[in-house]
Amino acid sequence: MTEPAAAQTSLITGMGAALVDLFADVKDAELEAIGSPKASMSLIEPAQSTTMQAAVKVHTQQPGGSAANSVAGIARLGLPTGFIGKIAEDDLGRVFTDAFQKLDVAFPNHPDTRLPTGHCLVLVTPDAERTMHTVLGASVTTSTDDLDGGVLARTGLFFAEGYIWDSPSARDAFLVAAESVHAQGGKVAFSLADGFCVTRHHADFMGLLDSHIDILLANETEIAALFGSQDPADLGPHFAAHDVMGAVTYGAEGAYVFAGAEVCKIDAQKVDDIVDLTGAGDQFAAGFLAGLHRGHAPETAGKMGVLAASHVIRQFGPRPQTDVAAQLKAQGLTL
Questions:
Q1: pLDDT above 70 covers what percent of the chain?
Q2: Cβ atoms of residues 310 and 281 within 8 Å
Q3: Cβ-based neighbours of 3, under 8 Å, separated by 6 or more
Q4: CA pair distance 71, 286, nearest whole angstrom
Q5: How is the chain split into domains, by residue range?
Q6: What are the pLDDT digits (tens) for 253-281?
Q7: What is the DSSP string of 43-96?
Q8: Most buried among 7, 65, 93, 197, by the most CB within 10 A?
């Protein structure tokens, strides 16, 4: 299938939390002195983060955020992209924007003047366990003021992460952006983010299926929280009832794509040299959405998603550092 000319030039625009991950190696005794349970994830205040950073040595700063990681992956595949999110005018904000500038991602933004750029301090112990401390900061202040008319006018596929529903102002911005993209004939995709997020906003997410969403992305835990089952045999009727395309990932078992009456099983790629599973779901979304945007059949797009995910887990970090487009082409999958 050849993609329409509009799909070759229109943007895939993501919306979500603009975060920067800060990595520091610590010994178990240091972690215990800080007072954080190993492998936990906690929300902390900016002042607490500053104190913790002074007690460790941050060796790596990486831009992150689920939708932002997917946008970066789509850009690395060679497709035009945009992003809607909120940062501050500080050093971490520049880390985030510089990464997008290098990828030519359209990211017009109005920096927050009250809160710092959202970030996550990741303390890594010798056993490779990660203990995370997140400052949401400016990331939760995205609002309709951050919507750029020029970017939205060029957007053919808009997608967002479920976490935006934790911010009333971001929620309003999503609805306005989705309606704008739909009005010009574009599609809207939505990622469920995590199972707890689905539980918090279950009624709203179910309502979105019948009003604003064309494509739903989830893993097995998230879809069970939404539909009450993760069994692929049970999921098809749910997607069909809402007239929504679905893509559900099952880790090492691969993924399923649901498109109308069609259910496609996508086998996982065998990967023996796994380095870091972080970002696998984000890059599945990148490959899948890029494939759909280029006019490929849902099953083919699903294969692109699985391949993109299989490559990012061979490296450290959630954003691809290799030429994934070339690797897709080698498998006969051309964008």
A1: 93
A2: no
A3: 293, 294, 295, 296
A4: 7
A5: 5-18+66-97+137-330
A6: 999 999 998 999 999 777 767 665 566 78
A7: E--HHHHHHHHHHS-EEEEEEE-HHHHHHHHHHHTT--EEEE---BSSHHHHHH
A8: 65
Q: What is the dihedral of CA 74, 78, 82, 85, to 10 degrees?
A: 40
Q: What angle, rounded to 10 degrees, do the helices at 298-312 and 280-293 form? A: 150
Nearest to residue 247, comparing CAs of 207, 210, 220, 277?
A: 220
* Residues paired with 54 in a beta bridge: none
Nearest Cα neighbor of 16 from 162, 197, 196, 205 is: 162
CATH of the domain spanning 5-18+66-97+137-330, picked from 2.50.20.10, 3.90.1310.10, 3.40.1190.20, 3.40.50.720: 3.40.1190.20
Q: What is the full DSSP assignment across 4-35?
A: PHHHHHSEEEEE---EEEEEEE--HHHHHHHT
Q: Cα dist. 232→9, 126, 222, 247 in Å?
A: 35, 38, 13, 11
* DSSP structural state of residue 297: -
Burial level of 309, CB count in 10 A (0-12/13-18/19+)? Answer: buried
Angle at which helix 66-76 crosses helix 280-293, to 10 degrees, equals 50
Angle at 333 between CA 267 and CA 82, to 5 degrees: 100
CA-to-CA distance for 112 and 93, rounded, in angstroms? 10
Question: Cβ contacts of residue 138 below 8 Å, gap of 6+?
Answer: 18, 86, 87, 88, 93, 111, 112, 114, 115, 116, 117, 118
* 1-15, 95-109, 279-293: range with highest mean pLDDT: 95-109
Task: Give the phi and the psi of residue 262 in degrees, each rounded to 5.
Answer: -90, 130
Q: Do residues 110 and 146 make contact, with C-beta atoms less than 8 angstroms apart?
A: yes
Cα dihedral 166, 172, 173, 179 sign: positive
Averaged pLDDT score across all residues of the chain: 91
Please provide residue 21's backbone torsions phi and psi, each rounded to the nearest 5 degrees.
-90, 130
